[in-house]
């Protein structure tokens, strides 16, 4: 079989392209060397946002596109994406009030906004929104963006792609690919060969490695790796609001409610000159995040509050900027099609928020090389589990009514993770025991079977840290039992 499209990389960009292409009637094979979302796409700040600070870099087109996508995604995946209010304290001596007002006005109006409230100036003194902050912060602003379960959004793209005919292969590393006339012949680790009319290099931090070592073709563009690190601390403040905090160096960090019991703090922007791969937060980054946070907090956070940290490499398009924090977050394509035969398209940069639009643009670039296929369609489609015409809250109420044995906490976790697909897990169960063994936090044999059969989970870490964040909640003994069970 010769596929129409071979996609290398199972992050948000690769899975979004696979979904779009399969929905247009193209035959698609996606290969990922590790797990879906194992790299950059699970190491984000978990936001669907326009990027308020990008306005200072005059990236108006990027912010406009991201804000428009925010509306579409909120409607398409209400189980894994939901509104989040941000509080921006005014810091005397940094950005003046008039500049903040102007930036937020643009943020409110650069794209049509139907589901999220606009920005407001607020008095923080004596208000619950100001309670976590030091007394010197008396006024600020609020605005809305969206939270996203980033790794689950990647999986939903892959699940939808597979439902529309795509073949998704995890643990499938590309070793070599070469042009054979009008198509590519690719070889995977283990010896399998794949033939395809076009190849998309969506390998994220490994994009240049694929170009140079696997494809062995010239490239006019280059990737710049920037490390972004985050801390997860014991919950620092009450309420559902998040905070966007300005630093004297011009950067900002976020403090966001996370997994009910924690606060997520990040991110850093550190130039990275090493090879693509797993990375960890440094002591310097930890100190930076804690110092930035404690500049604002009434009760300082300490290293003793840290329960977890994670870091990822952002494969940004190298636009020549000297500082990592000002490198463009927009994406760029490098199309290689000598003699209009067997094209390859390499992707540099991109954001979770704009991945759907990036996929449309990628297929526009490749359209003339591919067989006749359908038009763009994803702007009007919901993700698997997102078919909730009455909204998430109404669906959750129905789930708790239909399956009362789940209890409130488990029903909420399952509804957030799977949306309406939760019934593919609980099926006709009448009591919890019908779901099989409980490994902790309601993680049952039935759920594990679904994750393995339908969502490509192979290891305990796939389940604990990407398909869910149960690794934050389960004890060491519970995790060991899960590892033994999954390994067996």
Span from first to last CA?
Answer: 34 Å
Please identify which CATH superfamily of the largest domain we are dealing with. Answer: D-Amino Acid Oxidase, subunit A, domain 2
- How does CATH name the architecture of the largest domain? 2-Layer Sandwich
- Proportion of strand residues: 15-25%
How many strand elements? 18
Under CATH, the topology of the largest domain can be stated as D-Amino Acid Oxidase, Chain A, domain 2
Helix content: 25-40%
Tertiary shape = globular
* Sheet/helix structural class: alpha+beta
Radius of gyration (Å): 23 Å
Instruction: Please state the average pLDDT score.
Output: 93
User: Which spans of ≥5 residues are poorly predicted at pLDDT below 50?
Assistant: 322-327
CATH class of the largest domain: Alpha Beta
**Integer count of domains:** 3
> How is the main sheet built?
10 strands, mixed
Q: What is the overall number of helices?
A: 13
What are the SSEs and their pairings?
Blueprint: E1 2-8, H1 12-23, E2 28-32, E3 47-48, H2 60-76, E4 81-89, H3 97-109, E5 120-123, E6 139-148, H4 150-163, E7 167-170, E8 174-180, E9 183-188, E10 193-201, H5 207-215, E11 223-234, E12 242-246, E13 252-258, E14 262-266, E15 270-271, H6 283-294, E16 306-317, E17 332-336, E18 344-348, H7 355-366, H8 392-402, H9 407-418, H10 423-426, H11 445-454, H12 460-466, H13 476-487
Parallel strand pairs: 1-2, 1-10, 2-7, 4-12, 10-18
Antiparallel strand pairs: 3-6, 4-6, 5-6, 8-9, 9-10, 11-14, 11-15, 11-16, 12-13, 13-14, 17-18
């Amino acid at each position: 079989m010769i596929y129409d499209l071979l996609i290398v990389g199972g992050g948000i960009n690769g899975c979004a392209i696979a979904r779009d292409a399969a929905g247009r009637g193209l035959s698609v094979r996606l290969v990922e060397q590790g797990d879906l979302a194992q790299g950059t796409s699970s190491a984000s700040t978990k936001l669907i946002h326009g990027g308020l600070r990008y306005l200072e870099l005059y990236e108006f087109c990027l912010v406009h596109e991201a804000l428009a996508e925010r509306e579409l995604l909120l409607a398409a995946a209400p189980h894994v994406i939901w509104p989040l209010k941000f509080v921006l304290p005014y810091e005397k001596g940094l950005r003046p009030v008039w500049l903040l007002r102007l930036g937020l006005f643009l943020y409110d109006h650069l794209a049509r906004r139907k589901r999220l409230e606009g920005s407001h100036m607020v008095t923080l003194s004596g208000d619950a929104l100001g309670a976590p902050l030091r007394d010197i912060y008396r006024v600020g602003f609020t605005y809305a963006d969206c939270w996203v379960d980033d790794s689950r959004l990647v999986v939903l793209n892959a699940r939808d792609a597979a439902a529309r005919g795509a073949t998704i292969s995890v643990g499938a590393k590309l070793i070599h690919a070469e042009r054979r006339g009008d198509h590519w012949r690719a070889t995977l680790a283990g010896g399998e060969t794949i033939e395809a009319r076009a190849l998309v290099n969506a390998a994220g931090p490994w994009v240049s490695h694929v170009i140079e070592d696997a494809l062995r073709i010239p490239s006019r563009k280059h990737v710049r790796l920037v490390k972004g690190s985050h801390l997860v601390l014991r919950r620092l403040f009450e309420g559902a609001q998040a905070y966007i905090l300005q630093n004297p160096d011009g950067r900002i960090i976020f403090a966001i409610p996370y997994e009910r019991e924690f606060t997520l703090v990040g991110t850093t922007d550190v130039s990275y000159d090493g090879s693509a791969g797993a990375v960890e937060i440094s002591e310097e980054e930890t100190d930076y995040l804690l110092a930035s946070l404690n500049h604002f907090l009434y009760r300082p956070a300490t290293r003793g509050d840290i329960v977890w940290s994670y870091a990822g490499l952002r494969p940004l398009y190298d636009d020549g900027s000297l500082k990592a924090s000002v490198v463009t977050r927009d994406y760029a394509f490098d199309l290689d099609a000598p003699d209009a035969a067997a094209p390859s398209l390499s992707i540099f940069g991109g954001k979770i928020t704009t991945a759907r639009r990036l996929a449309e643009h990628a297929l526009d670039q490749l359209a003339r090389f591919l067989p006749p296929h359908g038009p763009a369609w994803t702007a009007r489609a919901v993700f698997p589990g997102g078919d909730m015409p009455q909204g998430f809250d109404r669906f959750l109420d129905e789930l708790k009514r239909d399956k009362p044995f789940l209890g409130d906490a488990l029903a909420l976790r399952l509804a957030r993770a799977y949306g309406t697909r939760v019934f593919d897990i609980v099926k006709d169960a009448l009591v919890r025991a019908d779901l099989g063994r409980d490994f902790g936090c309601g993680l049952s044999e039935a759920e594990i079977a679904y994750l393995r059969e339908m969502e490509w989970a192979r290891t305990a870490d796939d389940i604990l840290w990407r398909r869910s964040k149960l690794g934050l909640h389960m004890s060491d003994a519970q995790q060991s039992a899960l590892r033994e069970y999954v390994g067996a």
